[in-house]
Design goal:
- By secondary structure, the protein is an alpha/beta fold.
- The chain has 2 domains: 3-63 and 141-323, 3-Layer(aba) Sandwich (QueA-like); 67-135, QueA-like (Thrombin, subunit H), CATH 2.40.10.
- 18% of the residues lie in helices and 27% in strands.
- It has helices spanning 132-135, 150-155, 178-182, 220-228, 237-248, 285-293, 296-308; strands at 27-32, 38-42, 55-59, 61-63, 67-69, 76-82, 87-93, 103-106, 109-116, 122-127, 163-166, 186-191, 214-218, 232-235, 255-259, 274-278, 319-323.
- A 9-stranded mixed beta sheet has the order 2-1-17-16-14-3-12-13-15. A 6-stranded antiparallel beta sheet has the order 5-6-7-10-9-8, with no helix packed on it.
- Strand 5 and strand 6 (76-82) form a beta hairpin.
- The longest helix has 13 residues, at 296-308.
């Protein structure tokens, strides 16, 4: 398959730059894979599609403000992952200011460049250490063309976020309220969403793309519940990646690890039976994953229907429930 096979045109005014008034007020396009039927519902109707033996699996990662600026605003650092001796692997801008050995003022601290990596990232040490909640900003997706603010601190975070480590939110979970979650049989896995989720596919042939690594963790309780569940309803593509990585490498089990699984058509799913997800960018790995759950033509038809009906797209937008088989 070619990357261009997953392209579509989106009117710019359908990109959601702000969250909706209510988390559970989002629209939900329901796609039935077997029949091809499309339904227009609201997210608050999500429980209507679940059976008693189903299990909803969510990603409980917590977004940490990871973006920092120099006092003059000309230099920017995005912390990606911690390393030894209180160092951090970071994306930086502009690169010429972060040469090996340089010291750059960042948010009341000084960043020392310890190493320049082949991929352009840097290993930095901050003195004194940065406080992300005092000094940092949320790394909102590039298509949200504004700076983060106080509202984002609450709304660019799921209500069940528990384990710090994500740079970006698992956005399918943003629709849940505590009240709706309490009504559902559910369990959690953890996958810390990194900056790689925003990286475009730059190759013409899908098979030539190489996915980024992301860290995940599954508790013994979650593994047991997922193994014994009837249908597994994944909330977000991050959950799909964790479950399918495990299913393809020995089965659902407790533990921590990393995955770079790349799911695209055709793919035989082993443990995911339905997916709640937001609408994704053209030619993205996320759209390819969703297309693997159904056929590409049905997904692109659903996207065109969402555009005609003026659904809101991307992180703060509306959602889609893709059902592989009836309960």
């Amino acid at each position: 398959m070619r990357t261009d096979d997953f392209d579509f045109e989106l009117p710019p005014d359908l990109i959601a730059h702000r969250p909706g008034e209510r988390r559970d007020g989002s629209r939900m396009l329901v796609v039935h894979r077997e029949s091809g039927k499309l339904e227009h519902r609201r997210f608050r109707d999500f429980p209507d599609y679940l059976a008693a033996e189903d299990l909803v699996v969510l990603n409980n990662t917590k977004v940490v403000p990871a973006r920092f600026f120099s006092p003059d605003g000309r230099c920017e650092v995005l912390r990606l992952e911690p390393g030894p001796d209180e160092s951090w692997r970071c994306m930086v801008r502009p690169g010429k200011r972060f040469r090996f050995g340089a010291q750059v003022p960042i948010a009341g601290s000084v960043a020392s460049v310890l190493e320049v990596c082949e991929d352009g990232t840097r290993w930095l040490r901050f003195d004194p250490p940065l406080d992300p909640y005092r000094d940092g900003h949320l790394a909102l997706p590039p298509y949200i063309a504004r700076a983060d603010d106080v509202e984002d601190r609450e709304r660019y975070q799921t209500v069940y976020a528990a384990k710090e480590g994500a740079i970006a939110a698992p956005t399918a979970g943003l629709h849940f309220t505590p009240e709706i979650l309490a009504r559902l049989p559910h369990s959690f896995v953890t996958l810390h969403v990194g900056a790689g989720t925003f990286l475009p596919v730059k190759v013409e042939e899908v098979t030539e793309h190489r996915m980024h690594l992301e860290h995940f963790e599954v508790t013994p309780e979650a593994a047991d519940r997922i193994q014994s569940a009837g249908r597994v309803v994944a909330v977000g593509t991050t959950v799909v990646r964790v479950l399918e990585h495990l299913a393809a490498t020995g089965g659902i089990r407790a533990g921590a690890g990393e995955t770079s699984i790349f799911i695209y058509p055709p793919y035989q799913f082993r443990r995911v039976d339905a997916l709640l997800t937001n609408f994704h960018l053209p030619k993205s790995t996320l759209l390819m994953l969703v297309s693997a759950l159904a056929n590409r033509e049905l997904i692109l038809e659903a996207y065109q229907e969402a555009i005609r009906e003026r659904y809101r797209f991307y992180s703060y937008g509306d959602c889609m429930l893709l059902i592989l088989s009836p309960s």
